[in-house]
Write a structure and sequence with these properties.
Layout (H helix, E strand, L loop, with lengths): L5 H13 L7 E3 L3 H10 L5 E3 L1 H8 L1 H26 L32 H23 L11 H22 L3 H16 L1 H21 L9 H18 L4 H17 L17 H5 L3 H10 L5 H7 L12 H8 L4 H15 L9 H16 L8
Parallel strand pairs: 1-2
Length: about 375
């Protein structure tokens, strides 16, 4: 639609009304012009509001404060240990290639003529673990948020704290100089943002509580009145807890104001069969490519990263079944398959600690600790 004022919406909706099709309800993002048009064309029809957009609007000041904390935390980390975590420039320029379509040569695996000394092997293992931790910190400084539920600042703080706990275990076993500097720098940056993190975590929990109250999954069947009563009680708790500080009061005031505005359209879905609580599925029809990537990666805007990490085959439609995929791969020469698999491993190696999964990151850090503790211990930095 070239314009989205009331007149444009009325002209769009009126032919539907003229067909005489029974309209059980309308679902929208609560655009002001659409509210007026629906009331004009479909007078008396329930107008539901998307619960995701409701929470997204309620989260605006929280998301803004979270973004500011993320920036300050990132600046603090870089001020303390920027030189330590900065990527070293390659001695020779790297020419990117497209894996699979313009295959790069597979590096030959060099076999040492004589076995390496245990001290050398231990040093190589220590270096690998240190570089993995530095790469993890670099990745965490690039996190982006997706309000209302994914707040990058809160996530960055929590994941960096996990790195701190991991590094503490490492230096207790072997106090490597770079790890000591990394530990001190991260602790300084986290301490400076701890107060903001506590308040933002409280506000983010409010949003999670509201979302859980509205979510029917795992709960007995409830009608609109019952859900509204539970939602009202949740808002009352938020308003009470918001009195603990001026910042929390600002967050709770915004949540309550937006909630009052959205209240008339939040609860129709519990009484009207098949009326969705959100309209994100409809919106996704206009961005199918990004939706496919989101469903397979869990990341917004992952197209560029996928091409860098995996290869251009992301653009090529996959075969619809495992049997067809197996049949296609079976025609590939075995040595070519092994070479391509090696290329993929090389491409993905720098990104192995690039995960936003809490469980996966904890497993990875735990594994680093286990590897570190198998090395000889020393108290000398």
């Amino acid at each position: 639609m070239n314009s989205q004022d009331e007149t444009a919406f009325v002209e769009f909706l009126q032919p539907i009304a003229d067909w005489g099709v029974p309209i059980a309800a309308v679902m929208s993002d609560k655009q002001h012009a659409l509210l007026l048009a629906v009331a004009s064309v479909f007078s008396g029809v329930p107008h539901g509001f998307c619960q995701f957009h409701y929470l997204d609007n309620a989260a605006e000041p929280i998301a803004a404060a979270d973004e500011q904390m993320k920036i300050e935390l990132r600046q603090g980390v870089r001020a303390e240990i920027g030189g330590l975590i900065r990527h070293k420039q390659a001695e020779k320029p790297v020419i990117p290639v497209v894996t699979g379509l313009l295959p790069s040569p597979v590096p030959a695996i060099s076999t040492p003529t004589a076995p390496l000394a245990p001290e050398t092997l231990a040093e190589q293992e220590r270096e690998s673990i240190v570089q993995d931790l530095l790469a993890r910190v670099r990745y965490l400084l690039t996190l982006k948020g997706r309000p209302p539920f994914r707040m990058a600042g809160i996530e960055m703080f929590a994941r960096l704290h996990e790195v701190v706990e991991c590094v503490r275990e490492l230096v207790d076993h072997f106090p490597e100089a770079r790890l000591l500097k990394l530990l001190d720098g991260l602790q300084t940056a986290l301490t400076a943002n701890h107060s903001a993190y506590d308040k933002l975590s409280q506000a983010a929990q409010w949003l999670a509580d509201l979302a859980d109250t509205l979510d029917p999954d795992g709960k007995p069947t409830r009608n609109a009145g019952q859900v509204r009563a539970a939602w009202t009680d949740c808002l009352a708790r938020i308003e009470t807890q918001g009195q603990n500080s001026p910042r929390l009061q600002q967050f709770s005031a915004k949540i309550c104001k937006v909630s009052k505005s959205y209240a008339p359209g939040l609860f129709h879905a519990y009484d009207i069969p098949n009326l969705p609580r959100i309209n994100n599925d409809r919106e996704s029809e206009f961005r199918r490519l990004r939706q496919r990537l989101l469903s397979t990666t869990g990341q917004v805007g992952a197209t560029k990263r996928l091409l860098l990490r995996g290869g251009a085959w992301e653009f090529i439609p996959g075969l619809p079944s495992l049997a067809e995929t197996t049949a296609a791969i079976s025609h590939v020469q075995h040595d070519q398959f092994l070479q391509e698999r090696q290329r993929v491993r090389i491409h993905r190696a720098p990104f192995r600690l690039h995960t936003r999964s809490v469980q996966q990151s904890k497993r990875q850090l735990k594994k680093l600790v286990q590897r570190w503790k198998t090395l000889p211990a020393s108290r000398d930095p």
